From TrEMBL:
Belongs to the class-I pyridoxal-phosphate-dependent aminotransferase family. It comes from Silicimonas algicola. Coiled coil: none annotated. It catalyses: L-aspartate + 2-oxoglutarate = oxaloacetate + L-glutamate. GO terms for biological process: amino acid metabolic process. GO terms for molecular function: L-aspartate:2-oxoglutarate aminotransferase activity; pyridoxal phosphate binding. The lineage of its organism: Bacteria, Pseudomonadati, Pseudomonadota, Alphaproteobacteria, Rhodobacterales. Its cofactor is pyridoxal 5'-phosphate. Its EC number is 2.6.1.-. It holds the Pfam family Aminotran_1_2. Residues 34-378 form the Aminotransferase class I/classII large domain. Signal peptide: none annotated. This is Aminotransferase. Keywords: Aminotransferase, Pyridoxal phosphate, Pyruvate, Transferase.
Length: 391
């Protein structure tokens, strides 16, 4: 039987850019000791106290169908967290709980776009973006953020990609670790206002900011009414496997998103929501503790790579750093492949995140400090040898 063109075309065809990741997994399965710096998975598991809250909720009977938009208590707690972090008045009616930020990204585009509408997103980008937009029936259109601008999008480039119904932005950014400053967000906001675009703001890394502050576009003058914020406890609370996130925005849009959950996911398990409520009630102290290793390793990585002469994208956030390996003359893919073959170190080629990050590597800071230090030193030496050969 023929499947729909929409599902057949979901990934856009061609290689998906994750060959290196799969090769590293294969090597590990064969018993090779690979230093795994590919995906954004914490090297600690969900805190035992959160698991105990999950167990107690399930044992207490919260195992039936849960409230579909999310429990009142969790929606209220998420709203309070958003209001505390951004100053924007937010109530539970502005929030729908979703199975992870991923489901919120999908919901946001269904809310914003009709079939065939153009939905913009910034390249480099988190790998699921184009497929998520296509799953929602829209046309995925990239706007390149140039390496030379440290991957901050240029509002003029966004304008050049119009017409569109929405623009998806991700700050703090995966893969670059860059936080958009006020001027960048003002520029994006101006284009959005002038051309009546929705802004989908993916803020799942909002607790991983190492200097300066994270600014949500929803907090800028006149943007709350056109901004849909994607949030998640995956990164902030090391709860990637619990699949707990949210979409926040104008009440009417959220009412429609709730309607969508009724007809797609049918909500999030009640015991997972209760675990999330418990996690949020532990406040900023827990978020800071979970972020602490990445704060430390980000500083370590910037220091080790820069002092060895590897150019690093100046970044102030996230559990990743991006190295610019163009002086070696190799693509990110070729470099990463050779690094894996010769030194059993796995990093993601920049090309996995779009064309704009070609010739770069994304390094996830997800192993113990001493192991990371050793791997980065090896990577830098490898880079310098190739660079000399290229000269
Ligand atoms: N957005 C970005 C930028 C991400 O990196 C991720 C996960 N790696 C997600 C969204 C989705 O996260 P989750 O569905 O686990 O909340």
């Amino acid at each position: 039987m023929k499947v729909s063109d929409r599902i057949a075309g979901l990934t856009g065809g061609g290689p998906d850019g994750w060959d290196l990741y799969r090769k590293a997994r294969r090597m590990i399965a064969e018993g090779v000791s690979v230093t795994e710096l590919t995906i954004g998975e914490h090297d600690v598991r969900t805190d035992p106290s959160i698991l105990e809250a999950m167990r107690a909720s399930a044992a207490g009977g919260h195992t039936g169908y849960a409230a579909l938009p999310g429990t009142d208590a969790l929606r209220t707690a998420v709203a309070a967290r958003i209001e505390a972090r951004t100053g924007v008045p937010t109530s539970r009616r502005n929030v729908v709980i979703t199975p992870g930020g991923q489901a919120a990204l999908f919901a946001a585009h269904v809310v914003a776009c009709d079939p065939g509408d153009r939905a913009l997103f910034i390249d480099p980008y988190y790998a699921t973006y184009p497929g998520t937009i296509r799953a929602a029936g829209a046309i995925a259109v990239t706007v390149a953020a140039e390496a030379e601008r440290d991957f901050r999008p240029d509002p003029a480039a966004i304008e050049a990609a119009l017409p569109a119904r929405s623009i998806l932005v991700n700050s703090p950014n995966n893969p670059t670790g860059v936080v958009y400053d006020r001027a960048t967000l003002d520029g994006i906001g101006e284009v959005a206002r002038a051309h009546d675009l929705w802004i989908v703001s993916d803020e799942v890394y909002d607790t991983q900011v190492w200097s300066g502050a994270h600014l949500s576009p929803r907090a800028l003058p006149g943007l709350a009414e056109r901004t849909l914020v994607v949030g998640s406890l995956s990164k902030s609370h090391a709860m990637t496997g619990s699949r707990l996130g949210w979409l926040a925005g104008p009440e009417e849009a959220i009412a429609h998103a709730i309607n969508l959950t009724t007809h797609t996911t049918y909500g999030v398990p009640g015991f997972v929501q209760d675990a999330g409520l418990f996690a949020l009630a532990r406040g900023e102290a827990l978020e800071t503790a979970i972020a602490a290793p990445f704060r430390r390793r980000h500083a370590l990585a910037m220091r080790v790579l820069s002092s060895a002469g590897v150019r690093v994208v100046p970044s102030t956030a996230s559990m990743y750093v991006m190295a610019d390996i163009r002086p070696t003359g190799l693509s990110g893919e070729a470099f990463a492949d050779r690094l894996l073959d010769t030194h059993a170190i796995a990093v993601m080629p920049g090309e996995s995140f779009g064309r704009a990050a070609a010739g770069h590597l994304r390094i996830a800071l997800t192993v113990a400090d001493d192991r990371l230090d050793a791997a980065l030193t090896t990577l830098a030496n490898f880079h310098n040898t190739l660079k000399r050969q290229a000269a």
